[in-house]
Design goal:
The protein is of the alpha/beta class. Helices cover about 45% and strands about 15% of the residues. The chain binds fructose -6-phosphate (F6R).
Length: about 375
C-alpha cells in the first residue's frame, strides 16, 4: 500500500533509509572493521586471488554495476569490466574459470541477464547474483550471491533497489579488500562506521523534498536536460538522466563532466538545465570549471553540493545540499535528490510515474 504517499515511487524513495539499513543488517561490524557476506563466503579464497571481475546487468542495474567498478577497483584493486548483459551475450566474450561474474538484477528475471549468465557459466566462470526478488530465476542459476533486501519495489522506475544494489557492491568491494588485505583494518573501521551512518544522512537528504519540488517547478517545461558528474558521480549522472527520461519523457543524457567539451556542450543554451554532481571530493575543482563553461553559455545550473558549500552556491542557479561523507558513499547520497527531481518533474507534467508508458517492471523478453 502507498500509505501517505501519492505514488509508490515516492514511497519507495522515502523508504531508502530503511531499505539500506536492511541491506547492511548482519553484514557489517564497524567496531571490528569486518564485513561478512554469508552468501559468497565459500568463495572467499577464490576472491583472494581473483584477477578480474565482470559485472553484467541492464538499465539501472548496469548503472549500479558502474559504481561497483569504481569501488572494487579503488578498494580491492581488482580490474573490473562492466557490460550490458544484452551486449555481452552476443559477442563471444573472452572469459574463463578464473573469472567471477557479478550479475545484477532487481527482478531476477531479466531475459538478457539470464542469457548472459548461461554463457558465462558454459565458459566455467563463477557467477554471483545481486538480486532483490528472493527466489526469482537468477538466484537459482547462479553459484552464489548477495540479496539486496530492499523489499518489494512496485514503481516501475527503480529507486530503492538501485541504492541497495550500490550498497551490496560497496560491501562486496570491502569484502574482497578484506580477503586481499588491500585496506588497513583502521581504514575499514572508518569506512564501515560511515556506511553505518548513511541511512541517517539519506534521511537528511530527503528533508530537501520541498526545495527539490520548487526546482522541478522551474525546469519542468525543459525539453532536454544534461546530467554531469566525474568519478563515481558519473554513474549517478547516468542514473539521474535515466530516471528523468523514463517517467517524465523529457530527453535527458548523463555524461562524464569532462566529456562535455567533446560534444554535448554544443547543446547548451539558456533553455538547457544542466545538473551537476559538484560535491567536495577529489574532482571538486575540475567540476567547478565545467560549471563555469556551462554558465558562460547561459545554461541553467542545478548543483548537488556538500552541505556548507559556498563556492558553487554563489555561482549557480539552484543548489541541493547533501551531507559530507567519504567519496566511497557519494552514489548513495547524490542519487536521492535526482530521484526526487525526476519524480516531481514527472508529476508536474502530469505523467503516470508508477506506470510509465512502454515500460514493464521486469523485461522477460530479449
Ligand atoms: C530503470 C529500470 C530498468 C531496469 C532494467 C533491469 O528504472 O527499471 O532500466 O533497471 O530493466 O531490470 P532488473 O534489475 O530487474 O534486471
Amino acid at each position: 500500500e502507498k500509505g501517505d504517499f501519492d505514488h509508490f515511487m515516492l514511497k519507495e524513495i522515502f523508504e531508502q533509509p530503511r531499505s539500506i539499513r536492511d541491506c547492511m543488517r548482519g553484514r557489517i561490524n564497524p567496531e571490528a572493521g569486518k564485513v561478512a557476506l554469508g552468501g559468497i563466503k565459500e568463495y572467499a579464497e577464490k576472491l583472494k586471488n581473483i584477477e578480474r571481475i565482470i559485472i553484467i546487468g541492464c538499465g539501472t542495474s548496469w548503472h549500479a554495476g558502474l559504481t561497483g567498478e569504481y569501488l572494487i577497483e579503488e578498494y580491492a584493486r581488482v580490474p573490473v569490466e562492466v557490460e550490458y548483459a544484452s551486449e555481452f551475450r552476443y559477442r563471444n566474450p573472452i572469459i574463463s574459470e578464473k573469472d567471477v561474474v557479478i550479475a545484477i538484477s532487481q527482478s531476477g528475471e531479466t531475459a538478457d541477464t539470464m542469457a548472459a549468465i548461461e554463457i558465462a557459466k558454459e565458459k566455467g566462470a563463477t557467477i554471483f547474483g545481486v538480486c532483490n526478488v528472493v527466489g526469482s530465476s537468477i538466484p537459482r542459476i547462479t553459484d552464489a550471491g548477495v540479496y539486496t533486501h530492499a523489499g518489494p519495489e512496485i514503481g516501475v522506475a527503480s529507486t530503492k533497489a538501485f541504492t541497495a544494489q550500490v550498497t551490496v557492491l560497496t560491501l562486496i568491494a570491502f569484502y574482497i579488500a578484506q580477503q586481499k588485505g588491500t585496506l588497513a583494518t583502521s581504514r575499514l573501521i572508518g569506512l564501515l562506521t560511515e556506511l553505518d551512518n548513511i541511512p541517517e544522512k539519506i534521511q537528511a537528504v530527503l528533508a530537501n523534498n520541498d526545495l527539490i519540488r520548487d526546482i522541478a517547478l522551474s525546469i519542468k517545461d525543459a525539453s532536454n536536460c544534461l546530467f554531469l558528474g566525474r568519478g563515481n558521480g558519473f554513474p549517478v549522472a547516468l542514473e539521474g538522466a535515466l530516471k528523468l527520461k523514463e517517467i517524465s519523457y523529457v530527453h535527458a543524457e548523463g555524461y562524464p563532466a569532462a566529456e562535455m567539451k567533446h560534444g554535448p556542450i554544443a547543446l547548451i543554451d539558456k533553455e538547457m538545465p544542466v545538473i551537476f554532481i559538484a560535491t567536495k571530493n577529489s574532482s571538486y575543482e575540475k567540476v567547478i570549471s565545467n560549471i563555469q563553461e556551462v554558465l558562460a553559455r547561459k545554461g541553467i545550473v542545478i548543483a548537488i553540493v556538500t552541505k556548507g558549500d559556498t563556492q558553487v552556491k554563489k555561482m549557480v542557479d539552484y543548489c541541493i545540499e547533501i551531507p559530507d561523507a567519504d567519496e566511497a558513499f557519494l552514489p548513495l547520497l547524490a542519487t536521492i535528490p535526482l530521484q526526487l527531481l525526476a519524480y516531481h518533474i514527472a508529476v508536474l507534467r502530469g505523467c503516470n510515474v508508477d506506470q510509465p508508458r512502454n515500460l514493464a517492471k521486469s523485461v522477460t523478453v530479449e
